[in-house]
What we know:
By secondary structure, this protein is an alpha/beta fold. The protein contains nine helices and twelve strands.
Amino acid sequence: MDLSAKKLDVTLGGRRVLHGIDAVFRPGQVTAVLGANGSGKTTLLRTLAGLQKSEHGSALFGDRVVTDLDPRERARTIGYLPQDGAVHWNITAGDLVMLGRTPHRSPFAGPSPADWEAVVTAMSATATLEFADRTATELSGGERARVLLARVLAGQPQWLLADEPLASLDPAHQLDLLAQFRRLADEGIGVVMVLHDLIHAARAADAVLLLHEGRAVAFGPAAEILAPDPLRAAFGVEVMAVEDRQGIALPILTGRSPR
Ligand SMILES: Nc1ncnc2c1ncn2[C@@H]1O[C@H](COP(=O)(O)OP(=O)(O)OP(=O)(O)O)[C@@H](O)[C@H]1O
Protein backbone atom coordinates (compact mmCIF):
# COMPACT_ATOMS: atom_id res chain seq x y z
CA MET A 1 0.00 0.00 0.00
CA ASP A 2 1.16 3.55 -0.72
CA LEU A 3 2.47 5.85 1.96
CA SER A 4 1.58 9.44 1.26
CA ALA A 5 1.62 12.99 2.47
CA LYS A 6 -1.56 14.89 1.76
CA LYS A 7 -1.43 18.66 2.02
CA LEU A 8 0.81 18.25 5.03
CA ASP A 9 1.52 21.28 7.21
CA VAL A 10 3.70 20.79 10.29
CA THR A 11 4.51 23.44 12.88
CA LEU A 12 7.34 23.03 15.40
CA GLY A 13 7.99 25.48 18.24
CA GLY A 14 5.45 27.90 16.77
CA ARG A 15 7.12 27.91 13.34
CA ARG A 16 5.71 26.28 10.21
CA VAL A 17 8.40 23.90 8.94
CA LEU A 18 6.42 21.92 6.35
CA HIS A 19 4.06 23.65 3.96
CA GLY A 20 1.41 21.72 2.04
CA ILE A 21 3.53 18.68 1.17
CA ASP A 22 1.80 16.40 -1.33
CA ALA A 23 3.66 13.23 -2.24
CA VAL A 24 2.79 9.59 -2.86
CA PHE A 25 5.52 7.04 -2.09
CA ARG A 26 5.24 3.67 -3.79
CA PRO A 27 6.05 0.26 -2.34
CA GLY A 28 8.79 -1.52 -4.26
CA GLN A 29 10.59 1.77 -4.87
CA VAL A 30 13.51 3.52 -3.24
CA THR A 31 12.77 7.21 -2.82
CA ALA A 32 15.44 9.68 -1.75
CA VAL A 33 14.44 12.87 0.07
CA LEU A 34 16.97 15.63 -0.47
CA GLY A 35 17.13 19.26 0.55
CA ALA A 36 19.30 21.81 2.33
CA ASN A 37 19.90 21.65 6.08
CA GLY A 38 16.72 22.68 7.85
CA SER A 39 14.51 22.15 4.79
CA GLY A 40 12.26 19.73 6.69
CA LYS A 41 13.48 16.25 5.68
CA THR A 42 13.58 14.77 9.19
CA THR A 43 10.26 16.38 10.05
CA LEU A 44 8.67 14.85 6.95
CA LEU A 45 10.03 11.38 7.75
CA ARG A 46 8.90 11.59 11.37
CA THR A 47 5.44 12.69 10.26
CA LEU A 48 5.19 9.84 7.74
CA ALA A 49 6.23 7.45 10.53
CA GLY A 50 3.43 8.76 12.76
CA LEU A 51 5.89 10.20 15.30
CA GLN A 52 5.01 13.83 14.59
CA LYS A 53 1.51 15.21 14.37
CA SER A 54 0.61 17.48 11.49
CA GLU A 55 -1.24 20.74 11.96
CA HIS A 56 -3.21 20.34 8.74
CA GLY A 57 -3.34 17.49 6.24
CA SER A 58 -2.23 13.94 6.97
CA ALA A 59 0.27 11.19 6.47
CA LEU A 60 -1.61 8.22 5.05
CA PHE A 61 -0.93 4.48 4.80
CA GLY A 62 -3.28 3.51 1.99
CA ASP A 63 -6.35 5.54 2.98
CA ARG A 64 -5.73 5.31 6.73
CA VAL A 65 -4.25 8.18 8.72
CA VAL A 66 -0.93 6.93 10.08
CA THR A 67 -1.42 8.40 13.55
CA ASP A 68 -4.79 6.60 13.79
CA LEU A 69 -3.17 3.16 13.37
CA ASP A 70 -2.91 1.08 16.53
CA PRO A 71 0.70 1.58 17.77
CA ARG A 72 1.62 -2.12 17.39
CA GLU A 73 0.20 -2.26 13.88
CA ARG A 74 1.98 0.98 13.02
CA ALA A 75 5.27 -0.40 14.35
CA ARG A 76 4.84 -3.56 12.26
CA THR A 77 4.03 -1.50 9.18
CA ILE A 78 6.50 1.38 9.27
CA GLY A 79 10.10 0.97 10.38
CA TYR A 80 11.82 4.24 11.26
CA LEU A 81 15.59 4.60 11.47
CA PRO A 82 16.41 7.92 13.13
CA GLN A 83 19.37 10.10 12.35
CA ASP A 84 21.30 10.12 15.60
CA GLY A 85 21.99 6.40 16.11
CA ALA A 86 22.20 6.73 19.89
CA VAL A 87 21.83 3.72 22.20
CA HIS A 88 21.12 4.46 25.83
CA TRP A 89 20.86 0.95 27.26
CA ASN A 90 23.59 -1.35 28.35
CA ILE A 91 22.49 -4.34 26.25
CA THR A 92 24.06 -6.59 23.67
CA ALA A 93 23.67 -5.91 19.97
CA GLY A 94 21.71 -9.17 19.61
CA ASP A 95 19.24 -8.16 22.34
CA LEU A 96 18.92 -4.72 20.77
CA VAL A 97 18.01 -6.25 17.42
CA MET A 98 15.52 -8.57 19.16
CA LEU A 99 13.75 -5.42 20.42
CA GLY A 100 12.78 -4.89 16.79
CA ARG A 101 10.50 -7.94 17.18
CA THR A 102 8.50 -6.33 20.01
CA PRO A 103 5.48 -5.39 17.83
CA HIS A 104 5.21 -9.05 16.72
CA ARG A 105 5.49 -10.64 20.17
CA SER A 106 2.99 -11.16 22.92
CA PRO A 107 4.07 -9.32 26.07
CA PHE A 108 5.03 -12.28 28.27
CA ALA A 109 6.18 -14.87 25.72
CA GLY A 110 9.83 -15.55 24.96
CA PRO A 111 11.14 -15.21 21.41
CA SER A 112 9.63 -17.66 18.94
CA PRO A 113 11.61 -19.46 16.20
CA ALA A 114 10.25 -16.84 13.77
CA ASP A 115 11.65 -14.06 16.01
CA TRP A 116 15.10 -15.69 16.08
CA GLU A 117 15.01 -16.22 12.34
CA ALA A 118 14.11 -12.58 11.70
CA VAL A 119 16.91 -11.40 14.00
CA VAL A 120 19.53 -13.64 12.39
CA THR A 121 18.38 -12.65 8.88
CA ALA A 122 18.52 -8.94 9.74
CA MET A 123 21.94 -9.25 11.38
CA SER A 124 23.31 -11.26 8.44
CA ALA A 125 22.00 -8.68 5.97
CA THR A 126 23.76 -5.87 7.85
CA ALA A 127 26.95 -7.87 8.57
CA THR A 128 26.42 -7.48 12.32
CA LEU A 129 26.15 -11.10 13.47
CA GLU A 130 29.76 -10.96 14.64
CA PHE A 131 28.76 -8.21 17.11
CA ALA A 132 25.77 -10.08 18.52
CA ASP A 133 27.29 -10.62 21.97
CA ARG A 134 28.99 -7.24 22.26
CA THR A 135 27.54 -4.38 24.27
CA ALA A 136 25.89 -1.98 21.85
CA THR A 137 27.32 1.13 23.52
CA GLU A 138 30.84 -0.22 22.96
CA LEU A 139 30.51 -0.51 19.18
CA SER A 140 31.90 2.10 16.80
CA GLY A 141 29.43 4.64 15.38
CA GLY A 142 29.20 2.83 12.04
CA GLU A 143 28.91 -0.62 13.64
CA ARG A 144 26.13 0.68 15.90
CA ALA A 145 24.36 2.27 12.93
CA ARG A 146 24.28 -1.13 11.21
CA VAL A 147 22.96 -2.82 14.35
CA LEU A 148 20.21 -0.19 14.60
CA LEU A 149 19.30 -0.84 10.97
CA ALA A 150 19.20 -4.58 11.78
CA ARG A 151 16.79 -3.79 14.61
CA VAL A 152 14.43 -2.04 12.19
CA LEU A 153 14.77 -4.83 9.59
CA ALA A 154 14.06 -7.50 12.22
CA GLY A 155 10.60 -5.96 12.56
CA GLN A 156 9.97 -6.86 8.89
CA PRO A 157 8.12 -3.61 8.18
CA GLN A 158 6.34 -2.89 4.92
CA TRP A 159 7.93 0.56 4.89
CA LEU A 160 11.44 1.59 5.84
CA LEU A 161 11.99 5.27 6.55
CA ALA A 162 15.70 5.94 7.06
CA ASP A 163 17.09 9.34 8.04
CA GLU A 164 20.62 9.82 6.66
CA PRO A 165 21.41 6.11 6.94
CA LEU A 166 24.80 6.54 5.24
CA ALA A 167 26.05 9.25 7.59
CA SER A 168 28.41 7.18 9.74
CA LEU A 169 29.22 4.37 7.29
CA ASP A 170 32.50 3.84 5.44
CA PRO A 171 32.29 3.75 1.60
CA ALA A 172 32.04 -0.06 1.37
CA HIS A 173 29.27 -0.24 3.95
CA GLN A 174 27.48 2.67 2.23
CA LEU A 175 27.36 0.59 -0.94
CA ASP A 176 26.26 -2.50 1.00
CA LEU A 177 23.45 -0.57 2.65
CA LEU A 178 22.21 0.89 -0.63
CA ALA A 179 22.32 -2.60 -2.19
CA GLN A 180 20.35 -3.88 0.80
CA PHE A 181 17.73 -1.15 0.29
CA ARG A 182 17.46 -2.17 -3.36
CA ARG A 183 16.92 -5.80 -2.38
CA LEU A 184 14.21 -4.75 0.08
CA ALA A 185 12.49 -2.71 -2.62
CA ASP A 186 12.70 -5.67 -5.00
CA GLU A 187 10.89 -7.71 -2.32
CA GLY A 188 8.09 -5.11 -2.38
CA ILE A 189 9.07 -2.96 0.59
CA GLY A 190 8.84 0.81 0.24
CA VAL A 191 12.04 2.62 1.15
CA VAL A 192 12.23 6.35 1.81
CA MET A 193 15.66 7.63 2.77
CA VAL A 194 17.08 11.05 3.50
CA LEU A 195 20.37 11.55 1.71
CA HIS A 196 22.79 14.40 1.15
CA ASP A 197 24.92 12.71 -1.48
CA LEU A 198 23.67 13.49 -4.99
CA ILE A 199 25.65 10.69 -6.61
CA HIS A 200 24.40 8.01 -4.24
CA ALA A 201 20.89 9.33 -4.83
CA ALA A 202 21.33 9.13 -8.62
CA ARG A 203 22.55 5.54 -8.40
CA ALA A 204 20.29 4.19 -5.66
CA ALA A 205 16.95 5.98 -5.92
CA ASP A 206 14.04 5.38 -8.26
CA ALA A 207 12.36 8.62 -7.24
CA VAL A 208 13.59 11.82 -5.63
CA LEU A 209 11.70 14.37 -3.57
CA LEU A 210 13.42 17.73 -3.26
CA LEU A 211 12.51 19.95 -0.33
CA HIS A 212 13.26 23.65 -0.10
CA GLU A 213 12.32 25.65 2.99
CA GLY A 214 9.62 23.14 3.93
CA ARG A 215 8.08 22.92 0.47
CA ALA A 216 8.26 20.10 -2.07
CA VAL A 217 9.88 21.79 -5.06
CA ALA A 218 10.27 18.70 -7.25
CA PHE A 219 9.22 15.06 -7.06
CA GLY A 220 9.67 12.47 -9.76
CA PRO A 221 12.05 9.98 -11.37
CA ALA A 222 15.60 10.40 -10.05
CA ALA A 223 17.05 11.13 -13.50
CA GLU A 224 14.63 14.04 -14.00
CA ILE A 225 14.97 15.57 -10.56
CA LEU A 226 18.74 15.30 -10.11
CA ALA A 227 19.21 17.73 -12.98
CA PRO A 228 20.62 21.27 -13.06
CA ASP A 229 17.38 23.28 -12.76
CA PRO A 230 15.78 21.44 -9.81
CA LEU A 231 19.10 21.20 -7.95
CA ARG A 232 19.72 24.93 -8.46
CA ALA A 233 16.26 25.67 -7.05
CA ALA A 234 16.71 23.42 -4.01
CA PHE A 235 20.36 23.99 -3.12
CA GLY A 236 21.65 26.98 -5.08
CA VAL A 237 24.35 24.81 -6.66
CA GLU A 238 25.45 24.04 -10.20
CA VAL A 239 26.00 20.49 -11.42
CA MET A 240 27.39 18.85 -14.49
CA ALA A 241 26.04 15.45 -15.59
CA VAL A 242 28.64 12.73 -16.12
CA GLU A 243 27.48 9.32 -17.27
CA ASP A 244 28.74 6.30 -15.39
CA ARG A 245 29.34 2.86 -16.93
CA GLN A 246 25.68 1.90 -16.47
CA GLY A 247 24.59 5.02 -18.36
CA ILE A 248 23.31 6.76 -15.20
CA ALA A 249 23.78 10.54 -15.32
CA LEU A 250 25.65 11.47 -12.14
CA PRO A 251 25.28 15.09 -10.99
CA ILE A 252 28.81 16.33 -10.23
CA LEU A 253 28.94 19.55 -8.21
CA THR A 254 30.74 22.34 -10.05
CA GLY A 255 30.03 25.26 -7.72
CA ARG A 256 27.46 27.52 -6.14
CA SER A 257 24.93 29.19 -8.40
CA PRO A 258 25.43 32.93 -8.96
CA ARG A 259 23.38 34.86 -6.41
N1 LIG B 1 11.55 20.81 18.07
C1 LIG B 1 11.69 21.84 17.24
N2 LIG B 1 11.22 23.07 17.56
C2 LIG B 1 11.35 24.10 16.71
N3 LIG B 1 11.91 24.02 15.50
C3 LIG B 1 12.38 22.83 15.11
C4 LIG B 1 12.30 21.67 15.95
N4 LIG B 1 12.84 20.62 15.29
C5 LIG B 1 13.26 21.11 14.10
N5 LIG B 1 12.97 22.42 13.99
C6 LIG B 1 13.25 23.30 12.84
O1 LIG B 1 12.50 22.77 11.74
C7 LIG B 1 13.21 22.95 10.53
C8 LIG B 1 13.27 21.61 9.81
O2 LIG B 1 14.08 20.74 10.59
P1 LIG B 1 14.44 19.28 10.06
O3 LIG B 1 15.23 18.61 11.14
O4 LIG B 1 13.20 18.63 9.59
O5 LIG B 1 15.37 19.63 8.83
P2 LIG B 1 16.31 18.69 7.92
O6 LIG B 1 15.99 19.02 6.51
O7 LIG B 1 16.17 17.27 8.34
O8 LIG B 1 17.75 19.23 8.29
P3 LIG B 1 19.22 18.57 8.31
O9 LIG B 1 19.64 18.33 6.87
O10 LIG B 1 20.06 19.65 8.94
O11 LIG B 1 19.16 17.31 9.13
C9 LIG B 1 14.57 23.53 10.90
O12 LIG B 1 14.55 24.90 10.66
C10 LIG B 1 14.69 23.24 12.37
O13 LIG B 1 15.46 24.25 13.00
